[in-house]
Amino acid sequence: MIAPASDEQARHGGPPVPAADKTTVAAATPWADRLRHAAIILLAAAIALVTLAVLGEVTVLAAGAVFVCVAAAALVPWRLHDAANKRDDVPGTSPVETPVVRAIVAGMPDPAALLDRAGRVLHLNAAAAQLAPALRVRELAQFALRNPEIVNALREAIATAEPRRVSYLDHAPIERWMELIIAPVQVPTTFGGTDQCMLMTFHDLTPLRRVEEMRADFVANASHELRTPLAALSGFIETLQGPARDDAKARERFLGIMQAQATRMARLIDDLLSLSRVELSAHVRPDVQIDLAPLIRQVADGLEPLAKERQVAIEIDMPETPAVIAGDREELLRVFENLIENALKYGASGGRVAVSVAALASGEGGTEYRVAVRDFGPGIAPEHLPRLTERFYRVDVGDSRSQGGTGLGLSLVKHIVNRHRGRLLIESVPKKGATFTVCFPPVKPEVRA
Ligand code: ADP
Predict the structure, then answer these.
(1) Rounded mean pLDDT of the chain?
(2) What dotted CATH number matches 207-280?
(3) How far is the CA of 400 from the centre of ligand 1 (A)?
(4) The CATH number of 285-449 is which of 3.30.565.10, 1.10.3720.10, 3.40.640.10, 1.20.120.610?
């Protein structure tokens, strides 16, 4: 919300208005417009004086002199008077205060206010009134807006009659980044012709800024994750070229570590590429019929060596009938690989991992399938659960790295599940293990086999 100017500022007329404001205002009224505004007065005066002259009531000379006086008075630029910038100088209705202009401003989706060339509010929509409650029709916007960046931009726009754009941080009711655009517009008047006004529109840039911040964070995290194994590789290369050149035993050990680091880098790049691929196709729902049972068995078989190494038994519980969903085979393999591998790595102390597929009747007809991967390890503290699917989020960074983790697995799972229009549920009781459940919606009849 934009706070109003302080009372003190308002009493003293705020920071001084540049002299250019007033002169521009007066001088900028075009002669053609002035003539148009004064036409009716001039016409009436001419008719009356000609009639009086014809009737012999006044001499032609006197009638001419009176006409010149009336014309001079009518042609004085009336805006000279209301450019005085005094708060209590409330003018009458402006010729641009028409229902059409009001309707257009009211209908604008963003907060918007139309000002006259001196900065006085002519129309404002409900969103603008909510954003800046101090803005009042027929009062100067400069007095209602306290933010110095806005006030300066407004003054400059009024003085130069050129567009201005300013971004600022609004603090109330919540902190958000806003952008104000002030654009000069020619608005049709009730007398015909146009009058120059200023259209102020406010835009909420917060979502855009957030995306920018997330992108910057992502690049920083990805670079950091790649730099760590790269630094290890460079260090070992130097050691192998120098002190360990002739040490066959050390060479063997270092080459093993280097291979693990190179594998980690390759995995990270694979995960990053998979993430961006899934993001690109997020709006396209996969449409191939896939039976979950053989897919899950294939993943479990592939992870058997890791299970043996960690001394964990994988138990699989499948329904008798095929569990068919609409999916993308490669992406589903990644989902189950990630979930079962995590259970084997982080829940190894539980000694077993249970993978089950359950069929539930969905409300809309058809069958919803739920695949649950449960381990009996240390579990996850509740404060971490909402953040687990964020990119690079780990409960214990050291533990994840030592297990060859990238911190991207669950983020990838979430994106793939979203693309399948499914849900990922994470439940955990510390010391009793964790359960990751993926729910897939029923197959639509048009899905191809
Ligand atoms: P990572 O590559 O680190 O495994 P993930 O995105 O797959 O990345 O997982 C994020 C974090 O979630 C892991 O680092 C780990 O701390 C935690 N986590 C995932 N699965 C489990 C689990 N079954 N038990 C305990 N913690 C887990």
Answers:
(1) 85
(2) 1.10.287.130
(3) 7
(4) 3.30.565.10
What single string gives the DSSP state of each residue in 224-242?
A: HHHHHHHHHHHHHHHHHHT
Q: Pick from 420, 139, 166: which is nearest to 288 by CA?
A: 420
pLDDT at residue 3 in the model: 56
Per-residue confidence band for 344, with pLDDT thresholds at 50, 70 and 90: very high
**Per-domain residue ranges of the chain:** 7-89, 95-204, 207-280, 285-449
Task: Please choose, from the candidates 328, 10, 43, 307, the residue with its C-alpha nearest in 3D space to the C-alpha of residue 144.
Answer: 10
pLDDT score recorded for residue 74 = 78
**What number of residues does the chain have?**
449
Q: Which atom of ligand 1 is nearest to the CA of 436?
A: 23
**261 alpha carbon – ligand 1 mean position (Å):** 19
Q: What is the pLDDT of residue 447?
A: 52
- 181 — phi, psi (to 5°)? -115, 125
pLDDT tens digits for range 146-177: 788 889 999 999 899 899 999 998 887 788 89
Q: Report residue 404's pLDDT band, with 50, 70 and 90 as the boundaries.
A: confident
Top mutation candidate among 394, 403, 426 for ligand 1, by most atoms within 8 Å of CB: 394
Confidence check: pLDDT of 21 > 80: no
Lowest-confidence segment of 41-45, 157-161, 412-416 by average pLDDT: 41-45
Distance (Å, rounded) from C-alpha 406 to C-alpha 269? 9
The residue contributing the CA closest to ligand 1 atom 24 is: 346
Q: 400 CB under 6 A from ligand 1?
A: yes
Q: With bands split at pLDDT 50, 70 and 90, how would you rate the model's confidence at 59?
A: confident
At the top level of CATH, the class of 95-204 is alpha beta
* Range 32-59 burial, b when 16+ CB lie within 10 A, else e: ebbeebbeeeeeebeeebeeebeeeeee
| CA of residue 427 to ligand 1 center, whole Å | 13
**Ligand 1 pocket residue status of 189, Cβ below 6 Å:** no
The share of the chain scoring above pLDDT 70, in percent, equals 87
Confidence of residue 33 (pLDDT cuts 50, 70, 90): low
125 lines ligand 1 (CB under 6 A): no
Decide: 83 and 120 in contact? Cβ < 8 Å: no
Q: Is the CB of 375 under 6 A from ligand 1?
A: yes
Q: Which of 388, 424, 435 to mutate to test the pocket of ligand 1 (most atoms within 8 A of CB)?
A: 388
